[in-house]
């Protein structure tokens, strides 16, 4: 399609101009549409290509072996595809900065929008602190002389500086880091192919041992359940596409393109990586028990070291470190926009909706920075680390809760369009799913099943006794979400839109 044709598609849509003020629900926000198509493409393409894929897969391999990993990551991959399809459809119709939070309040119940909004804010704020704590562990690959508080301070300074600049600097930073992560992923894939083809030394355990000699499910059903939260940690946070649509130049053009590229990302970067990992590294490898977050526990690094291939482990550590900064910057971006959206919807104080002339929600960014700093430094002490673990556990389930919300919202949106005889799906900018409501129903079922599996493994953990602490360290997000939704409904007396 030519640029002229694209322009004609969007000429009747008043929210496409670069730098234009974004109106959403009669709000006073002045978010500027400065994100270009390449920014949206690379932000979505490079999202979560970091410690979640490069390192945490080691824990998945240890507990689930090849079968558990393939099942869990395939389930989550299918859920991600369904999610992005549903989110793209509704985003093309209502591309607001509030995204699925606004959609949930508009089509289902304001209480649902408030509950998922606050839950997502807490989750993304703790993600910033989690990435800060990982920084020190990653740096130990080269040196152990740097004190932990100093590493965290430098890390937070970098993240805050990125967001103190105009929004286009954040977009360019995400674009460049995504390019680096994608390049590293392609290098690793070629290295895996080379090792399987005979490059490097022959390891003590032959390749493919997980498939030929190992037990199919060494930890039974629990092993599969244990892989689910790790898989969603690696592939979650796809909702950033909807949030970024509020600042995209042409969201109704950019969002479908980002969604169409999702299949390649899921197959090449996740599913193919899992196959290589399970072929190259036995699930019994003692190196998989390394420090959480350390590149030494990465299955990729273990495979490279077993094959005596130099340089790449250090390069991978550098890219993971860069990816951690990228993920934290994304988390701060999403958290600040969520707080701004909740303010514009009248669910939190109006002061959080203030935006400066360069399009930065400076009050929301300031509050998010303070909260993330608090979570980061309390993690340095034993008691504080336990408190932080409880808060950060919200992110373990919030992705599934957000995906459930999006599927329910999509069903309600379709009912509303049909009841009012609206012709919105006949517009040129519409992106209509074929086979609806299969996508929404399947996503509901998958998310419900995954939450049930996480609940089961939180009650019956592998190698541990059942305890309340163990349960809430995995499943705290669900009761928090329910309390927020019910509390807001009772306080405001909201109604379910039927």
Automatic annotation (TrEMBL):
The keyword Transmembrane helix is assigned to this record: yes
Mostly located where? membrane
Keywords, ordered alphabetically: Membrane, Transmembrane, Transmembrane helix
The entry's localization annotation reads:
Membrane
What is this protein's record name?
A: AAT family amino acid transporter
Q: Where would I find the Amino acid permease/ SLC12A domain in this sequence?
A: 39-493
Specify the species.
Answer: Aspergillus sclerotioniger CBS 115572
Q: Name one GO molecular function term.
A: amino acid transmembrane transporter activity
Which residue windows are transmembrane per the record? 70-95, 107-127, 147-166, 178-200, 262-282, 335-355, 362-379, 385-406, 438-459, 471-491
What PANTHER family does UniProt report for this protein, alphabetically?
Answer: AMINO ACID PERMEASE, AMINO ACID TRANSPORTER (EUROFUNG)
Membrane-related topology note? Multi-pass membrane protein
One GO CC term, this protein? membrane
UniProt key word Transcription regulation: no
């Amino acid at each position: 399609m030519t640029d002229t044709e694209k322009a004609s598609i969007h000429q009747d849509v008043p929210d496409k101009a670069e730098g234009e003020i974004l109106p959403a629900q009669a709000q006073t926000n002045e978010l500027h549409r400065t994100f270009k198509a390449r920014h949206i493409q690379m932000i979505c393409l490079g999202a979560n290509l970091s410690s979640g894929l490069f390192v945490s897969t080691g824990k998945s391999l240890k507990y689930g072996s090849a079968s558990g990993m393939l099942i869990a990551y395939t389930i989550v991959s299918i859920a991600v595809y369904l999610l992005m399809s549903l989110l793209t459809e509704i985003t093309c119709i209502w591309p607001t900065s509030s995204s699925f939070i606004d959609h949930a309040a508009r089509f289902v119940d304001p209480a649902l929008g408030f509950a998922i909004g606050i839950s997502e804010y807490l989750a993304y704020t703790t993600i910033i602190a989690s990435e800060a704590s990982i920084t020190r562990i990653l740096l130990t690959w080269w040196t152990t002389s740097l004190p932990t508080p100093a590493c965290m301070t430098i890390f937070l300074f970098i993240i805050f500086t990125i967001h103190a600049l105009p929004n286009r600097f954040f977009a360019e930073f995400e674009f460049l880091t995504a390019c680096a992560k994608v390049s590293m992923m392609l290098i690793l894939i070629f290295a895996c192919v080379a090792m399987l083809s005979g490059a490097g030394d022959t390891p003590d355990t032959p390749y493919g041992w997980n498939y030929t000699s190992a037990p199919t499910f060494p930890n039974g059903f629990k092993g599969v359940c244990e892989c689910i939260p790790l898989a969603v940690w690696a592939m979650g946070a796809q909702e950033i596409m909807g949030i970024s649509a509020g600042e995209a130049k042409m969201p109704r053009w950019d969002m479908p393109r980002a969604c169409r590229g999702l299949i390649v990302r899921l197959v090449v970067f996740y599913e193919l990586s899992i196959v290589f990992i399970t072929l190259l590294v036995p699930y019994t490898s003692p190196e998989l028990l390394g420090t959480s977050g350390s590149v030494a526990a990465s299955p990729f690094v273990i495979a490279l070291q077993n094959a005596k291939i130099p340089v790449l482990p250090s390069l991978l550590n550098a890219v993971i470190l860069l990816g951690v900064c990228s993920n934290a910057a994304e988390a701060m971006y999403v958290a600040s926009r969520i707080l701004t959206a909740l303010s514009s919807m009248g669910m939190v104080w109006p002061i959080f909706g203030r935006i400066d002339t360069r399009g930065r929600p400076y009050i929301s960014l300031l509050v998010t920075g303070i909260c993330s700093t608090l979570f980061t430094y309390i993690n340095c002490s034993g008691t504080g680390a336990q408190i932080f673990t409880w808060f950060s556990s919200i992110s373990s389930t919030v992705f599934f809760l957000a995906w459930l919300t999006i599927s329910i919202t999509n069903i309600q949106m379709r009912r509303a369009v049909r009841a009012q005889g609206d012709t919105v799906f006949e517009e040129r900018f519409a992106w209509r799913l074929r086979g609806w409501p299969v996508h929404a129903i399947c996503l509901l079922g998958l998310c419900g099943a995954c939450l049930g599996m996480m609940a089961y493994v939180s009650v019956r953990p592998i190698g541990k006794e059942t305890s309340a602490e163990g349960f809430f360290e995995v499943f705290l997000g669900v009761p928090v979400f329910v309390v927020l939704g019910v509390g807001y409904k009772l306080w405001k007396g909201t109604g379910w839109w039927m």
